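Methods, example record. To illustrate the input and output format used throughout this study, we show the complete record for histidine kinase. The sequence lines were provided to the predictor; the line carrying C-alpha cells was produced by it.
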Amino acid sequence: MSGQRSLRTWLFGRSARLGWLHLVVGGALLMPFHLVGTVVVGPLAGGGNPFLSAAGQLSAFAAVLPLVAVFGLLAPARPLSVATVRSLGLAPARGDGFPEGPARTRAARVRTSGWFTLHLALGGIVSGASLALTPFACVLVALPFVPALRESRYGLPEFAGQPWALALAPVAGVLSMLLLAAVSAAASALLARCAPVLLGPTPADRLAAAERRAADLAVRNRLARELHDSVGHALSAVTLQAGAARKVLDSGRPDDVEFVREALAAIEDTTRRTVGELDAVLGVLRRGEDAPGDRTGPALDSLAGLLARSGVPVTRAGDGDDVLAKVPGPVSREAYRIVQEGLSNALRHGGARPVSLRAAVHGGELEIVLENPLPRRPAPVRPGGGRGLRGMAERAVLLGGHTEAGAHASDGVWRLTARLPLAETTGRDPR
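The corresponding predicted structure is encoded as:
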C-alpha cells in the first residue's frame, strides 16, 4: 500500500506537478528558438511543410540546441534559471546555495549553458508530448462511447472500429497518460539532481562570497571599535567629571562653584561631540555599506582638543602638530582612536591622575607611548567590558603595526606602546 502511495506521489504529487510546470516553462523558452529552426532548417529536411512534417520538426529541434547553448553562455542566463527554479518552489528561497548574480567566470557560464540547454531540451520534449498526447489519449478513452470519432475523417486506422480495438482503446489512452506522467517525473528528477551541480556556486563564486562575508565582518568590527572607543571614552570622562562636581557640591564650599561650572561645561561638550560621532557611525549602519564618504573621522589634528577634554591632566611630548599633520589619513585616524582608548583606560583605572603622552614619527613609523600611574587598587570589572586593549591591537594590526600594553612595577606605571607604519602601500587600511 505504501509502495502504491509512493508511486502515486511520484507521478502526481505536488513536486511532480511543479516539475511538469517547470518543464513547460522550459518548452515555452524553447519556442522562439524552435520557430527559427523550423523556418531555417525545416525545409532542408524535405517532406513538404516543415510545420506539419515530423521530420522537419525533429530536425529543427536538434538544430537549435547549439543556439540554445550559446544563449546559455550569456551572463543573465543564470539568474533567469535560478529565479525560475525558486519561483516554482523547486528550491528554498534562501539558503539553497545558488549564487544570486549573473555568471561571471568562464566555468560558471559553461555550467549554466549546460543547465539551460538541458532544461529547454527536456522542456521541449515534455511540452510537445503534453500538447500532442493529451488530446490523443482523450480520443482513445472516448472512442468506444462516441461513434462519430470512429469516422475516417479523424484519421484513425481502419482497425479502430474493431471490437478488440474499441475495448483496448481506453486502456491505451490511460497508459499513454501514465507514460507521459512518468517521463515528466523522470525529467523533473533529472533536473533536480543536476541543478546544484550546474547552477550551484563555482569555486570562484565561493571565494567571492567568502570575501564579501569577510568584508562585512570587517566593517562590523570597525564600527564596533568606533562605538567602543568613542562612547566608552565619553562615558568615562563624563562619569569622572560628574563625580568630581558632586563631591564639590557636597562639600558646601561656595568658592568652588567655578569648578562645578567648568565640569558641567566639559560634560556638555563631551556629550555633544559624542552624539555627533554616534550619529555618523549609525548612519553607516543604516546604509549597510562602507561608502567612501564614511571614511572621515577625528585624526591627530584633533589631538589637542581630545587631550583638553579627556578628564585627566596630560603631559604631552614628542613631535608637534605640524609633524603629526603629515601622517597619512588612515594612520592618523587609527592613532587618534588608540590615544582616545588609552586615555579612557587611564581614566577608568587610575582616576584623574596625570598621564604622559609621547607621539613621534621616526624610522618610517608613528610611535605612541602613553603612561599613567598604576592604580592603588584594581578597578571593578565591567560586565561585557575588557575589549579596549584588543580593539587597539586590531587597529594596529590592520595597518601592519602592533601594540604593547602592561604594568611596569619598577616604574610604577601602566604603559601603552603602539607602532604604526606610515607607508600607505600596505593596502590594509581598515576604512
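Annotations derived from this record:
The beta strands are 314-318, 355-362, 365-373, 402-408, 413-421.
The first helix runs from residue 2 to 12.
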